[in-house]
Amino acid sequence: MAKLLALSLSFCFLLFSSCFALREQSQQNECQLERINALEPDNRIESEGGLIETWNPNNRQFRCARVALSRATLQRNALRRPYYSNAPQEIYIQQGNGYFGMVFPGCPETHEEPQQSEQGEGRRYRDSHQKVNRFREGDIIAVPTGIAFWMYNDQDTPVIAISLTDTGSSNNQLDQMPRRFYLAGNQEQEFLRYQHQQGGKQEQDNDGNNIFSGFKRDFLEDAFNVNRHIVDRLQGRNEDEEKGAIVKVKGGLSIIAPPERQARHERGSRQEEDEDEKEERQPSHHKSRRDEDEDDKEKRHSQKGQSRRQGDNGLEETVCTAKLRANIGSSPSPDIYNPQAGRIKTVTSLDLPVLRWLKLSAEHGSLHKNAMFVPHYNLNANSVIYALKGRARLQVVNCNGNTVFDGELEAGRALTVPQNYAVAAKSLSERFTYVAFKTDDRASIARLAGTSSVIDDLPLDVVAATFNMQRNEARQLKSNNPFKFLVPPRQSEMRASA
Amino acid sequence: MAKLLALSLSFCFLLFSSCFALREQSQQNECQLERINALEPDNRIESEGGLIETWNPNNRQFRCARVALSRATLQRNALRRPYYSNAPQEIYIQQGNGYFGMVFPGCPETHEEPQQSEQGEGRRYRDSHQKVNRFREGDIIAVPTGIAFWMYNDQDTPVIAISLTDTGSSNNQLDQMPRRFYLAGNQEQEFLRYQHQQGGKQEQDNDGNNIFSGFKRDFLEDAFNVNRHIVDRLQGRNEDEEKGAIVKVKGGLSIIAPPERQARHERGSRQEEDEDEKEERQPSHHKSRRDEDEDDKEKRHSQKGQSRRQGDNGLEETVCTAKLRANIGSSPSPDIYNPQAGRIKTVTSLDLPVLRWLKLSAEHGSLHKNAMFVPHYNLNANSVIYALKGRARLQVVNCNGNTVFDGELEAGRALTVPQNYAVAAKSLSERFTYVAFKTDDRASIARLAGTSSVIDDLPLDVVAATFNMQRNEARQLKSNNPFKFLVPPRQSEMRASA
Amino acid sequence: MAKLLALSLSFCFLLFSSCFALREQSQQNECQLERINALEPDNRIESEGGLIETWNPNNRQFRCARVALSRATLQRNALRRPYYSNAPQEIYIQQGNGYFGMVFPGCPETHEEPQQSEQGEGRRYRDSHQKVNRFREGDIIAVPTGIAFWMYNDQDTPVIAISLTDTGSSNNQLDQMPRRFYLAGNQEQEFLRYQHQQGGKQEQDNDGNNIFSGFKRDFLEDAFNVNRHIVDRLQGRNEDEEKGAIVKVKGGLSIIAPPERQARHERGSRQEEDEDEKEERQPSHHKSRRDEDEDDKEKRHSQKGQSRRQGDNGLEETVCTAKLRANIGSSPSPDIYNPQAGRIKTVTSLDLPVLRWLKLSAEHGSLHKNAMFVPHYNLNANSVIYALKGRARLQVVNCNGNTVFDGELEAGRALTVPQNYAVAAKSLSERFTYVAFKTDDRASIARLAGTSSVIDDLPLDVVAATFNMQRNEARQLKSNNPFKFLVPPRQSEMRASA
C-alpha cells in the first residue's frame, strides 16, 4: 500500500489537473466537532419489495462531510424503481446478487432481443435497451449525478446496498440537500422529510410524487402519444396499493443478458473476477434464456463487429461502455494483507476510472480479533466508515488533541472521520469488516505509527527533539513496530503480558 | 442530438479532468423552490445611448442557480463603455449587429493603423490595439472573468444583448454578488442597488463611480503622465451630463477592422458563417475604410506571415487569437431539426473552446405552434430560459413531483430550470424562440419521452414493473412517440381528434 | 512580464482544465468591503525556541479572501515541530536559513546514514528518512494540505517565515477555520483561539494538544510497540516545561544532508541558485559531516543508479522528488526590472509545478523611493500583500469606484487586495519591498496605465468616446507613460516640478 500510495500520489502529480479535490467546503464552523457518534439509520420506509433506511443528513457529522447515507434492502424479485440524484452516489453491496442498469443519455441501446421473439404479444416488436450489469456481494457501484439507476434482486438472498450520496460534490449545482428524482410511483423520496421549511407538500393536488406527476395529463399524452390510462400509471395515480420505491415483480424480470456465466458470479474467485472484467469490456448482448445459446453466439459475433465499428471514432467506447462497478469485498487479491491481522482493498479512479468523474473512492477492510489498524489520517478526503460485520473499538482525534470518538462501532452503524482527523481501530470480534466511503477519487492516508509512517520518515534527531526524548527512545518509536498498516493481535498480546 | 450527447459525454470521459462541473453550490435550502416565476427585468437604467435592464439577482430562483441576468439595448452609434466582471459572462445578441472588443492582458496589439495616417491630428502617431470583433444577431459572446469588454452598435437597428453572469463560477473568488467594474463614467454599476447593507455610498467624496474614481489625482497624474484635466475625464468628474454606461458617439467610431466582408455578416447563410470562422482564425488587421482596399491586401499578407511566426512557439495563437463568439440564432445548420416542429442549436466548449474556461454553454430553440419539447432534465447544469419571440406553455417539476411552474413564458421573460428538475414546453405562437443559458460547458439533457429517451432505454420488463403496467402498455410508452426531441403539432392534434 | 502574462494565459488555455480557479467562494456579502486595513498580527504565542504571531482569520478582509496569515520566528537551533494543516500553505522566508522537511506518505526514505555509524548508541541501527531540504532568505516553500512539515534554524540569524494558509482551497474539505494538527507537544494550535463556540476545551481530560494526545495509552503502546514512558512523551504529557510549537535543540540537530554546498547557499548569486536547482533534481543522500566526503561520493553514485531505476516507472520521480521551494527574494534575475524604479519576481506553477496542486502563487517586489507600481488589478486571484521592508502609500478601489484603502503599508503589516479591485502603490522609503501571496497558481494582473495596459490596448476612438475626450487627449492616455509596470520616481518628480 505504501507503493500504492506513492503511485497514487505520483500519478496525481503527473496528471496534475486531476489531483485537486473538487469538492465544496462545509459552512463556517460546521466541522468543529467535539463529539462524533456511531450512528444507526434513524428512518425506515417500507416498500412492497423491501425497505430503505436513511441517516439524517442534517446530523452534524454528515453536514461537515457533506454526504448523505442510506441503506436499501431488496427481497427476492424486488426492483428498485429507476431514480436519479442531484449528486454522485457510491453504492456498496453488503449482501446479495442481482442486476443493475443506468441510462446514459445519448448512448446506444446495445442489448437487443433476437430476431425470433417468442413472446406472444408483440410478435414484431423487438425490445432493445442500454446495457444491463450484474452485481454481486462486495461490489462498489458508481452512479453519476443525474443518471437514472435501477437495481433488481433475482436471487433468494436479500440484497443489502449501502449508498453514500456526495452532496458536497461540485457536480451538484443545487443546495446541500440530497434529492431523489423518481421516475415512477407515488412514494415520498427518502430524504424529503429532512428538508427544512419544506411545507409545500400540503398544497399539492397531484397524487404521485415522481417526476411525471407534476406534468399535466395532456402534456404527457402528447409527449408519449399514449392514452390517459397509461399516463395515470406513469404519474403514479391509481396505483392499486402504495408500492413504494421498491416493487415486487411477479414471476421475476426477464432481462436480456448473456446466459452462461451468471452462475459463476456468486462464487467470487479472483479468476472469475478477471472474467467479469473481460466481459464488461466486451459488449455482450444476450438474452438470459438458456435455450437461446446458439442464436446468442452468432449474435455476439455480429454485434461485436458493430461495436468495433462504433469504436472507430474513439468515442462511444468510453462513457457508454465504461465499467461501473468493481469488487472490493473480501477479495482474494487484497492491497494490504497480513494473515494474522487482516486485509484491506481499495478502489480508486485508477482501478475504476468512472470514479474520477464522481470524485469518490472506497476501502474495504477486514480485521482479526485484537488486530489493529494503526493511527492514521486521510490527507485529502472525508471518510464515512460503515461497519459490515462484527465490532471494533475506534478512536478519533481532532486538531486540538481532543478525543471526538472513543467507542465501539458495531455492524450496521456508520462513523464519519473528517479530513485530517486521526483515527485508529482495534477489532473486538473474530472478524470485523467495514467499508469506508471517501470523498476523493484518490484518497490517501498517512500512517502515524509503524514502518514507513510519518514518524518513521522523519530524521531520527527530529523525532528525538520533537518528542523531547533520547535518541534510543526515538529509535524505538521509529522502528519497534515492523508492520505498516495492520498490527496482528500477537503484538498487542505480547505487550499486555510484558 | 443523441449522437451529439453521446459525443459530448464520451469526450468528457476521455478528457476526464474537464467533465467535473466546477461551479459552486448554493447555500443550504436555497434550491427548495416550490414556485418558480417567469420574470421580467425589475430595474431599468437609462443611458445616453441606450439602457440596461436587470433582474434582481437576490430573487430565489437566481440565488439557487447562482447567476445574474441583464439586458442591454444600444442605439445606433452607441458604445457600451468598457467594464469587467467578477464572474464569467455569456451574452446572447437578440437583435442587431456591431463590434465588440476584449482586452487580454499580455496579448499583442495586432490591429494597427497603416503607415500613412490621414487623420489631421497626430500625423506621426499610429494607433494600434488588440483585436476587434464583429457580432451579429444570434451570436453568443463569451466574456471571461476580469476581462475588460466593450461593444458598439454601428447600424440603425438597436442592438439588444442578454447577458448571463455566472456568479457561482469558481472563477469568481469574491462573494455571490455580481459586480461590474467600469473603466469610465460616473454611473452606478447596474447590480449595486441589490447589494445588502451597502450603505457606504453616502460617505464617499469622489464624484465618479469607475475604478479610476477612487484613486487620488496625483497617483493618476503620475501613472499616466497626463495633466489634471485628463485625469478628471478619467475619473468621470465634470462629465457634462450623466451619460451612463452606454454613450453616444458623435459621428460614429472609426475602428481598424477588415473592410469588405462586413456587409455579408448580416445575411447569415451557413456559407458565410463558415467564412466568419475562417476569418476569425486568420488574424486580419484592416482599417474599415472602403478606400484602403489595396493597402489592406498587402498588409494582410505581411501580417499573416507575422502571425505564423508568432504561432511557432505554440502560445500566442491560443488565448490571444481564441474565437470568442459563435452563432446559434436561427441557424441554417441546426443540431436538431424537424420541419414540422422546429429546430435547436447548441454551443458547447466543443464548438467554442473558450467556454471551457467559463464553464458555460447555451442553446437556441425555435418551436412551431403547438409543437412540443418533450419532458427532459438537465443532467449537469442549471438552465435559464429567456424567451426571445412568441410565447409557450412550460411546466417544471421538482424532485417531490410538485409542479413548480405551469404557465406561459412570453418574449422578454426569463425562467430558471434548476439542475435535474423536469421541464416540457409547448409553443403557443406561430414561432416561439428562446435562448437557454446553461451553467456547464457541456450541458447534457436527458429526455423522458420519445425514441431513445430514458424510458425507451430501459428494458421493457423494467418499464412494465416500474410503472405497474402490462408489457404492451410499456411497449407503447417506449415506442409510441417516434420523435426524439421535438414533437410536431400534428401528433398532438391527431391525439386530440382521436 | 507582458510576455510572461501572455505565456501564462496562453498556456492556461492550452491546458484548459488547469485554468479554472478551483477555490471556493466567500459567503454572501463577505466581500462588500468598504474599508480595508493594513493589519499587524493580533496574537503572539511564545515558544521555547521562538514565537508564532497570527492575524485573526475572522477579520473581514481575510474572510473575504478566505486565507489565514501567520508569522513564525525561530531562534538559532530552534525546531518548529512537525504539523500539518487542513489547507495548502505558502511560506515566504523573510530572513534566515535552515532546513525543512515534509513527509509524503508512500515516498521512499532516500536519505540514509552510511554503513559505519559513529554514534555510540545504536551501532547497528542506521537511520534513514525522507528528503531534507535547505531553505534561504527569499524562498517560497509550498506545503500541500495534510503533509507534515517541520523546519529548523541552524544559523545565528533568526529565521522569520510568513505563512499564508489558503482555507478557501478546494483541497480543504472541512470548514473555513485554519487548523494545525501538531504531531507533538502540548501547546494550543495557533488558530484555536479564533474558533467560535469552541468551548469544548474544558471538559478534556488529556494533557496534550497533539494528535496523539487524544488516543488512549494502550492504543499507542500497541501501535508503536513501546512502553508507557515513551507514549507519555508522544502524547505531550509530563513535558518538563511548556515548550510550545518551536523547541530548542541542545547541541543542534544532526541531519543527513549533502555536505559541501551548504555554505554557498547564503550568498545567493544566480549561479548558486541554478546549482540549487540542479541539486534538488538530483537526489543526494549525504550526511552533513565534513569527514565523510569519500564515503559520500561513492554513495552518491550507487544511489543515483537506484534512483534512475526508480524513475523507470515514471512515477516516483514526480511527487517524491518534486521541487518544493523557489527563491523570489531580491533575485538577480527579476521578471520585471527598471534600474530607476525597482524589480518584481513572481513564482507560478510554471516555475514551481507543485503550486498547481496548491493553486497558489506569489510575487516579490522592490520599489525605489517615489517609484510607483501603476494602477492594476488581479484578474483571477485575491492577493495578500505583506510589507517586508520600508513603507509605501497604497490605494485600493472597489467596483463602486470607492477608495477602500488609502494609506501607508509599513514593514510587518499585511493588506488584502480582493480579486478585481484596483490597486496602485508608491514607495515612501529608499527601498520598499513586499511579498504578495496570490490565490491562483497562475495569477494574472491587468495594468490600467502605461504601455500595453488595458487603456493602451483599446482602440483610440473607443478611449476617446469612453472617457468623453478629444482624440489627442486619448492619445496621451494611451502613450504618455512609456513604462509598463514600474514608473521611476523621475517621472513623478518631473510632473511635480512642472
UniProtKB/TrEMBL annotation, chains A, B, C:
Keyword presence, Signal: yes
Pfam family, one: Cupin_1
Cleavable signal peptide: 1-21
SMART domains cross-referenced by the UniProt entry: Cupin_1
Keyword RNA-binding: no
Gene Ontology cellular component terms for the protein in this record: endoplasmic reticulum; protein storage vacuole
UniProt-listed InterPro entries: 11S_seedstore_CS, 11S_seedstore_pln, Cupin_1, RmlC-like_jellyroll, RmlC_Cupin_sf, Seed_Storage-Functional
Compositionally biased intervals (Basic and acidic residues): 109-129, 261-271
Gene3D superfamilies, per database record: Jelly Rolls (2.60.120.10)
Region: Disordered, residue numbers: 106-129, 243-316
Alphabetical keyword list: Disulfide bond, Seed storage protein, Signal, Storage protein
Oligomer status and interactors: Hexamer; each subunit is composed of an acidic and a basic chain derived from a single precursor and linked by a disulfide bond.
Function according to Swiss-Prot or TrEMBL: This protein found in the seeds of many leguminous and non-leguminous plants is the source of sulfur-containing amino acids in seed meals.
Protein name: Legumin type B
